[in-house]
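ARCHIVE CARD
Drawer: 12
Card no.: 0347
Subject: one protein chain, sequence and derived structure
Cross-reference: see card 0346
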Amino acid sequence: MMFDWVAEKLVLFNKKAAGRRPPGPDGLPLFGSLLQARRKPLHFAQNLIQKYGDIVHFKIGFFTGYLLNHPEYVKQVLSLNHQNYNKQNYNYQKLKPVLGEGLITGDGETWAMHRRLIQPIFHRSRLASFGEITTKTTKQMLEEWALRVNSGQPVDIAADMMRLTLEVVTESLFSADIRSSIDLVRNAFTTLNEDIAYRFRTAFVPPLWVPTRRNRAFIKARDELDQLVFDIVERRRENGESKDDLLERLLEAGEGLPVEHELTDRQIRDEVITLLLAGHETTANLLTWTLHLLSQHPGVAQKLRDELAKVLQGREPSVDDLSELQYMEMVLKESVRLYPPVWIISRKAIDNDMIDGYTIPAGSTVTLCIYTLHRHPEFWDDPEAFIPERFSGEQSQNRDKYAYLPFGGGPRSCIGKYFALMEAQLVLAMICRQYHLKPVDNHVVEPEPLVTLRPLNGLKMVFRPVDDNN
């Protein structure tokens, strides 16, 4: 009798628990929705939301997830109950073979200590010196472009923005010149980015110790980056020169404290690789998508050039000018709304949580798709349109801040937000005051959702000088 009573209660409990699970697709046995998610991840997320609403339960192979697409749900995970959500989930485990335990993948007190250590480097007081590096490096790129203007040769804007931002972040944060190795670094990051995206979307992937072609390419790219980082660290230690940069803070961390509080070479490597990747990849993609959007909207581009002409009066921009370039800031904010470089983030629930009446079980992964959140029709009028004016003070003042998350939210928001915006504004100003950019005919531009949101096959463009009168 007692056994029957317990069994009956378990059945009732399971029915109630099942009733609290969000709607979602059943998918195929064993594979779930793997095929749809792997084929077109952005369309997959959009279709789930359109069909099932703002909270969806789905499966991809052995992975079970909950897709959240409402500012209140996002706020619950990233801010109100952030202590219940960590990064020890399937997605971030896939990043660790590259990033180790850096700021993006780390958790707990070690992460908090590293965040406190690194944060002062990105203080706004340092933006002026970073800005000088940005303008110097951009000027060098534009001088190279000038040699190609008359030839009519197209430029892969995506590749050039990657190269530019990688040079800027390396000199700004690590006082290092890696121009001789720039192609090696860029190609290595591309290999790792594509491989990580493949592992995200594939249910059954051989571990790295299996010598497949893909695994060998991955390990080679990672080893090349590791060697570059360790060489930079070793050169700094040998010359003993004080640079007052991020690398110096990492090397000096814990000096005078017990050994257990010092950063190991591996921890230094993890933070350097993390900030190299995060510090150049996202800004490069922001600039690439912005230049693409401006080429598709000549009226917006002209309005931006008019503002540049009025504020700059023919001179190069500096950090001091950025507060006056308000329309340019709106252009960048609208660009990153439509094409957020970090298009998706996730967290693992430590304990059970309740979101809008639905149970999020302990151990499950919640996925926040920034790409779809930025297109939510309840919070964005005409969400697919490129309208910079929606970020004017008047239109922005009552918007839910968790409807717009280009740099994440809560305690783990992007540490380099102001650095990235400053760099993007200066680069965009220098390009647009000098050149009109036009897409190459028949070059199809579509987003490729890897770890970051890149344009598939790059962005080929031709350019011509802006008239002196502009």
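Annotation on reverse: The first helix runs from residue 2 to 19. The radius of gyration is 24 Å.
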